[in-house]
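Sequence in, structure out. Go.
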Amino acid sequence: LRVAKGDHVLLAGELKYPLTINLGTDDREHKGVSAQNAPQADWMLTINDIGVADLRQWCDAFGWKGLRGVRTGQLGGIVIASSRDNGNAIDLNTRLMISNVRMVRAEKKTDSTPLKFAHEIHGTVTNLTLLRLHSWIMTASVDDRSVGALRLSGALDLRTPTRDPRMEGSLTLTGLPGGVCNPLLALWSDARIDRALFNGTVGLKVRRDLLSWEINLRGDQISLQLPEMHQPTAPLDLVVAQSGSFDRTTRVLRLDKGI
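Output:
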């Protein structure tokens, strides 16, 4: 597989070794597989700095309009798939870099901070029905300085993903400038963050029907640029400290702490 635009190769896929996938999984429960990853990369896909304009064309061709609000951005990285246990397990390892993202409605004055998102994902699909997400780490950086990290792990039945999820994750912010949130804020609002600094943590767990969370976030000197105002709002500090749980079966919400 090779997709090129002129002399620039956008996508390059290569089958390095025979890849085996067992498709006979319709009438059986999850079959146990070994915990050890495959020793080699059977198939590799290389993504070479694809611009958002090219991605938008492909998405539009398949009817997905999610990138129409994105003006600039680049995607690069690799995706590796390997099979083991007679094709009953497929190991997936991914490294992606998303950089220079800007929304169509973003303003140059308040949205000039360069932001990069580095993704590293390791998981296994068992019998084409069970996804075990060993780790998904997304790191946000500004000028090569880490300002935030998102970590996810768990397991999900792909046949009924909402029936019995077992997932947990955490978000850590370490001096995240508020301006880097403006490209996402532009999706649903004309307001912009003129200046702010965010620190703190968010923890989340999902066990069957029980969702629990713990939030400790602080925003310092938050000032907004609103469409109807010529000057930014006066800076304010924000503190959020909350923990609780929600049972989807009983519909019971419990708050243990709230500030």
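Check: The radius of gyration is 22 Å. The chain has a mean pLDDT of 85.
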